[in-house]
Amino acid sequence: MADWLEHTVQIQVEVPIELAWHLWSDIEQMPRWMKWIDSVQILEENRELSKWKLASGAFQFSWLSRIVKVVPQQIIQWESVNGLPNRGAVRFYDRHGSSIVKLTVAYAIPGILGPVMDNLFLGQIVESTLQADLERYRDYALNLHAQSTDE
């Protein structure tokens, strides 16, 4: 039996919702801003199934993930189908010229370890890493937006 731990972070990005959505929906680009994601590979033409590899220091995990819900410019929701158990969603909120991006990630860890690890260190590490990922995403989006408006 496993416990699920969940973390939610969000950020405001001063780019139009179309750009915020476009960048995130191209999941193979996520290693550009997600520190622990080493690679993402699309496995199906319809882009629903993908292979993910997480690496940090001495540990590595991989899993297959399936997109379970997409509402353009609003939500992308996923769940793992094997490997590291995880699920989550990224939501987009249009603020007329800027966007709010809200990321929720949940992952399973063995039952008795869940509360201990979350309270001691794992939860804080994961949440601060996800927030830093969103900050890198914001910087990446702002840079692309600036390049497109300079042209």
- End-to-end distance: 55 Å
CATH superfamily: START domain
Mean of pLDDT: 89
Determine the CATH topology: Alpha-D-Glucose-1,6-Bisphosphate, Chain A, domain 4
**Shape type:** globular
Helix content range: 25-40%
Description:
With 151 residues, this protein is an alpha+beta fold. Helices cover 31% and strands 46% of the residues. The protein has two helices and seven strands. Strand 6 and strand 7 form a beta hairpin. It is globular, with a radius of gyration of 16 Å. The mean pLDDT is 89.
Looking at this protein, list some descriptive labels.
single chain, 151 residues, alpha+beta, 2 helices, globular
In short:
It contains two helices and seven strands. The protein is 31% helix and 46% strand.
Secondary-structure blueprint:
Elements: E1 2-13, H1 17-25, E2 37-42, E3 49-56, E4 59-71, E5 75-83, E6 86-94, E7 99-110, H2 113-150
Antiparallel strand pairs: 1-7, 2-3, 3-4, 4-5, 5-6, 6-7
